[in-house]
Design goal:
Protein name: HTH cro/C1-type domain-containing protein
Oligomer: single chain
Radius of gyration: 20 Å
Low-confidence stretches: 93-98
Structural class: mainly alpha
Strand content: under 5%
CATH topology of one domain: 434 Repressor (Amino-terminal Domain)
Mean pLDDT: 81
GO molecular function: DNA binding; DNA-binding transcription factor activity
Largest sheet: none
Order of helices and strands: HHHHHHH
CATH architecture of one domain: Orthogonal Bundle
Number of strands: 0
Pfam family, one: HTH_3
Shape: extended
CATH class of one domain: Mainly Alpha
Number of helices: 7
Organism: Acidovorax temperans
InterPro entries: Cro/C1-type_HTH (IPR001387), Lambda_DNA-bd_dom_sf (IPR010982), TransReg_Diox_bact_type (IPR050807)
């Protein structure tokens, strides 16, 4: 499922691009240093992906900035509304899965026969 760009991912992407360009780095150079794919950097800058904190922290380390720098000036958040909840669920990276059935002594015993 592709992320629906929103004001937050777009703002983070713009900040990322700005810091990268200030350092004279290409997307490929940043990607190689951060050990991610170049297309990932492109999608981050376009606000098309919702990266993990670890990915952002790694990119910040490469750019010699803090996470606070990357999120600087961003004062946006989705309000806790049905619309915001729907958007958050649409952007989840992993689909919800049903937990595996719990095995009992009876099912374990039946498996050994």
């Amino acid at each position: 499922m592709r992320l629906i760009p929103n004001a937050i991912t777009l703002a983070v992407g713009e900040n990322l691009r700005s810091f990268r360009e200030e350092r004279g780095m290409t997307q490929l150079e940043l990607a190689m240093s951060a050990e991610v794919e170049r297309t990932r950097v492109s999608k981050l800058e376009l606000g098309l992906v919702n990266p993990s904190v670890l990915t952002l922290a790694t990119i910040c380390h490469v750019l010699d900035i803090t996470l606070a720098d990357l999120f600087g000036g961003i004062r946006l958040a989705h309000p806790p509304t049905t619309e915001g909840g729907t958007l958050r669920r649409a952007n989840q990276a992993v689909l919800d899965k049903k937990p595996a059935a719990k095995r009992t002594k009876a099912t374990k015993k039946a498996d050994t026969k």
